[in-house]
Specification:
This protein has five helices and eleven strands. It is α+β, with helices and mostly antiparallel strands and about 210 residues long. The protein folds into two domains: about 90 residues, Regulatory factor, effector binding domain (Multidrug-efflux Transporter 1 Regulator Bmrr, Chain A, Alpha-Beta Barrel), CATH 3.20.80.10; about 100 residues, Multidrug-efflux Transporter 1 Regulator Bmrr, Chain A (Alpha-Beta Barrel), CATH 3.20.80.10.
Length: about 210
Amino acid sequence: MLVYPGAMPTRKGQAMEKLDFSKTYKDLYGASQRVKEVTAEKGTFLFVDGQGEPGGEAYTAAIGRLFPVAYTLKFAHKAAGDFDFAVSKIETLWFDEPGEVPMSQWRWRILVRVPDSINKAEVAGTKKQIAKEKSADVAVVGLISFKEGRCLQVTHVGPYGRLHESYAKLEAYATEAGLAVSGPAHEIYISDPRRTAPERLKTIVRLPVKSSS
């Protein structure tokens, strides 16, 4: 039986425990408008790599390929009685510095976190199932595990177009603390922009850091 970290196998008649990363890792997925240091240990994610402006056609299409795989995995394990998990919020790693590269050429990796017990062979089988049953193009979806380690993080409240203000806050904090950015920018979209006014959108902004000395 596959069991995600921290879960206990269910006994007959017991309600199945459900993994929710926002509750299990409150320091990483909790909202705080004050800059804080966090440690992001290794996590496992479905992902799609691509290029293009945020919210553009390529970006939106990538999200549409991730969710069928995530939900198929979820319901397969729940039906088998192994475990259940909440399908997580969309996260994105951004690999280019705004202002240095045109927005249309920004490189990104869109992520959906899944239990660590899910493996590449299982994802490959799930993709074949989806392609056969739903005629959906999910071939580009992959599985990756990575660790960011020491990070600075803050929650941005407001339109995506003002995210640069939160990045400036993180960078100012890093400079004062003698830290340097050591990895790609990481955004976690807490709010659904289809249902939330721009001024109330919540986005967690995270930067991996290391000592600059």
